[in-house]
Each structure stands twice: as structure tokens, then as C-alpha cells.
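I'd like us to work through together how a protein chain folds, taking it slowly. To get us started, please write out a protein record for me. Go ahead whenever you are ready, and we will take it from there:
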Amino acid sequence: MSTPTEDQQIIAEDLILLDADLGESKEAVIERLAGVLASAGRATETDALRDAALAREAQSATGLPGGIAIPHCRSEAVTSASLGFARLNPKVDFGAPDGPADLVFLIAAPAGAGSAHMKLLSSLARALVKPEFVTSLRNASSAAEIVSLVDGVINPAAKPAATAPAAAAPVSTAKHSAAATPAEASASTAPKHIVAVTACPTGIAHTYMAADSLVAAGERAGVTVHVETQGSSGSTPLDPSIIAGAEAVIFATDVGVKGRERFAGKPVISSGVKRAINEPDVMLTEALRAALNPDAARVGGTAVAAGSNDSAGELGWGTRIRQILLTGVSYMIPFVAAGGLLIALGFLLGGYEISGVAEDIVVNNSITSLPEGGIAAYLGAVLFQIGALSFSFLVPALAGYISYAIADRPGLAPGFTAGAVAVLVGAGFIGGLVGGLIAGFVALWISKWKIPAVLRGLMPVVIIPLFATLIVGAIMFLLLGKPLAAITSGLTDWLNGLSGSSVIILGIILGLMMCFDLGGPVNKAAYAFATAGLSVTDTASLRIMAAVMAAGMVPPLAMALASTVRARLFTEAERENGKAAWFLGAAFISEGAIPFAAADPFRVIPSMMAGGAVTGAMIMAFDVTLSAPHGGIFVFFAIGNILWFVLSLAAGTIVSAFLVVSAKQFVKGKNAPSDAELDPALATV
């Protein structure tokens, strides 16, 4: 096996397979290519590279129109940035909208890949949107010819210097087409140019392919397109003057846009990054129409006018509101996890009675002046108090970041204030949701005020926070505080009053929600419901927390069990994921089941939901409680009635594992593993 060097070529003949049968699934193809790279000394081990590529595949399919697939990853196992290539026969489905792929590049980058390597990899991704390059790959007769073709796009020959000086153009910029007539070029209704931002989770391939697809669409339409690629090879922000002169912006991203506020007020078309690869001409047309439409959606949340037909490509308000709420929940969870676990540790050291005396102990005692109960009581009080202070930010953080998702940074102060008011008046979690939404939209409304130019610099730091905080505070105190507090109190009383079949039904509902999308919006809604109401003095909230955590542990544990007892029904990659899922499930990381659900959703997800419902119902039926919001079985000391917790968890895990094994064995699914993927040694398992 060769040893890679720093200047080793990214692609070589020993990394290429031509007209090869690598199996019937993308998992098999990725594993074979990972093995090729490992054998060539480009990776330390096949399994680690394969798992990293499959983990990226689980986030979104890497198949592209035209029979191309670009599975890719960054991994500690990769020793040198490399490309593995296979021209497949037969083709294999990588999730492209137009069918299976016959050209597959496995793009492997070291975890700490430098910008030079990342730029080379992004150059390849950009070349794959050019039909002539793809045709050349299909017609190549040897591995050496493939190497030459790829090297030609990632290390292009220097072009002759221009005979006349010309201003340098940004790399991702399409100039006006020479075919445009003078009338078209000077038409007052034609936008001067369009700006765009592209970004994907790993920032290796899709980011740059989307950018060049939009640029190419601009060339076809005779429109200048400036693209900011927020990827792994670095990002050069668009010049503020270019943004200011643009009449529309396209956000083709699967992650948040960095510096989104730079585009405030611009008409916007938003989508995932793959739409810009698949439908660049459509997105450009939508952006051009938005630029001419005064009612088009704009960066910053301006609503589209009712009845407008020109908002194609902008996220619908149902999706937008869900994203807004999930932003708040996502920022809230760290406060919940840290605070809740510290509170639980405080109970472990100081006992449950520490909650009533912790503040007094912390204020009036020290490590040299211990309270009654000694060092354990003092440390328990310190841990409890730190946790309680962290937990007290739960509702303000929820409201603050809901407001931030709507109005950006100017929405933070009014949002946090709305959350604090909700806590003060007893409106709790519901008050935080409502207050955050009001604060965000009020701040957004104020940002649209027409004010003298001399005062504009004060808008984000003084005027918007001042008036938005005043308005939302007044609304919460004078109008909504008491009604929302009454709703919260009523809900709490109702939960405390549940018994018998009613409480079991609640457990079933929570269990179904936790297992529906494995960390997605529904799962987070159930988790937020449990953590927001968590109180050590409220038995109902402790039972709800126990049901939510136990049900959330079921999916990874069930898939770990199923892939162990019936290993021949799972691919080798899934069996490896199953080994890791034992720990992930025990630690309450529901996402450990995502690789299984992504590959086979129609058989895996219903099976998980059934087991989650069983666990949730049993937790409620047997009065299991939990005072820690995270940690799984590792916070055993915070679980009340722990025997029934374990039995409930085991029952749900067994039910889910049995159902998924039965479904895979008797119900043929689209993504069922082929015999080629299964280890013959496991045939008798």
C-alpha cells in the first residue's frame, strides 16, 4: 500500500473503476470506492471513510441530474484529499430526480483539509454541471484518460494574458450575454444584476455546483449573476456595493446564511441547495419576476401580498413559522440540558430537599464555612443553584431567539424581554412562544419605518429595541399576560388531574411524537413541551419528562437490537451503525436511528413509533418520574421508579425491533439490501 504525500495527485489511475458492477445499492458502491481509496493509502481504514460518506448521504441524497452522483465527506480517516471514480454498469440509484447514476465520484477530504485542497475538489464539482465534461467521462476508454480529464478541470492550464486591460471579475459571476440587443440591455425593466448565496452542510460539492448552475443560467438569460459560496474552501463575501445594486437575491442553502442581514430588504427566492442545481433557470426566472414585483417576498420577513402569484420559490408561511419556532427551541435546548443536568447532580449530592435551601446555602456559606450536611450539601446547593439560574433562561431564550429568527439582531432585546415578562406573569412556555412572535414582528415592522437618514444608524441598536421592547412589554402586561397565564395554569391543572386511561393516552401521543421524525420538528415539539414545564415540585411534569426521554431512546436501541439479532437483513454499513446505536440510544440521542430511517423510512419509522407508544404508555401507567431533561440511562439517579423505567424502555425496544425485522423480512421495500450487500457468513443468523 502506497503512502500519500502532501503533493500527491488528488486522482490517480489506481482510484478509478471503469464499467464496474459494484452492487445494486449506493451503500455498496460507496463501500467499494472507500476500499479503493484505503488500499491506495488515501485513508487509514475503509469502514471509517464509508461511514462518514454514508452519514453525509443520510442528510440528503447526492445524486444529480444526468446520471451523476457525488457522495462526499470530510473524515479523520482520510490522509490525503482524494477522488475515487467509478463508471457503473449497471447504474445505481443515488436519489437523483431523473433516475440512477452511472458516473460516481467519491470525494474524500481530510477533516482539517486546507483551502487549496478544498478549492481543487470544488473545481471538480463545478465541472460536473458542464455537459461536455460529463460526456467525455462516459466516452473515456482508459483510467489514464479519466485522470487527464479530471486534472484538466482541477488544474486548468493558464490562459494567455489579455491584450487590453480589463477589470477582474469574481469567479462566480456571469457577464451579460453578447447576444443581448441594445434595447434589451437598456430596458428600464431589466434588473441590473442578481446576487445569490449557496451553501450545503459539508460545503464540498453542492455549494459550488449550485453556484455554477446559477451562473450558467444567468449566461443563458443574459443576466449578471454574482454568487457568494459559503463552503469549505473559504468564502469571499460579496462586495457591499454589488449587494446594494442587486435587485433580487437567491438563497440556495441547506444551512443558515451567514450575514443574512446584508441583504435586508431585497426581493428573495429561497430553496435548498439542490434546487439550484436541478432548476437554476426556473429560480433565476423567479428572481427576475420578484425584482419587478413590489409585493414580492423580501429578506427580513416582509409578507407576500395576498393573492400574489409571483412568490414561487419563497418559503411558505407555514414552513417559515415552523422554522421560526424551531430556531427558538434549538437555542433554548442548551440552557435546558445544562441547567437540568446540573439540577439533577445537585439532587444527587444534596437530596431533593436541597431545592428549598440552595439559595440560602450559596449566599451564606462557603467552602470554608460549610452548612449543616457538610461538603455534600454545599456542593449540591452550588450545583443546584447554577442549574436553576441556567434553567431560568429557558423561556426568555425561547422568546428571544424566536424574535431573532424574524427580525434578526434587533429582535433579541424585545424577545428576551417578552420571555422575561411571560415568566413574571406566570404565562410560562406558551407566553414565551406568543411573546417571541409578537416581539419579532413588531421589531420587523419598526425596521420598515421611514426615518431621516441621520437617524438610520441608530435603528438597530436604539430605535428598534427601544420601541419594540416598549410595545411588546405593554401588550404582554396589559392585554395578554393574564389570559396566557390562565391557559398555562389550566393546562398544568389538567395534566396534574390526569389519571387512568387519560394519562396513558398522553403517554402514547408523546411516544409517537418522539419517534416520528427522530430529532425533527415533531420530536422537538414534544421535547420542548416536556422540558418547558419541568419542575421538581410538579409530579405530572416529571412523568411527562420520563415518557419523552424513554420514548426517544427507543429508536436507536431498537435498530441496534434488530441489526444484531437479524443481521442478514441489514447492510454491512447498517450493522456498523447498529453497534454505535447502542450507546446513542442509552444516552437519549434519537438521531442514532436516522441512518436506518433515511434508507428505509416506510418500514423503519412506523415500527419505531409503535415501540415509542408502548414505552410512553407504560411510563405513564406505572408513575415513572424523571427530574433531568437529558442523559438517558446515565442520569439513573434522577429517575423515580427506575425498575419500571427500564422495563418500559425494554418493552418498547423489543416491540420496535420485532416489527422492523418482520417488515424487512416479509414486506419488500424499495431500498432493501441485495444479496451482494449481505455477508454470506451471516446467512444463518
Q: What stands out?
A: Residues 459-497 form the longest helix (39 residues). The radius of gyration is 28 Å.
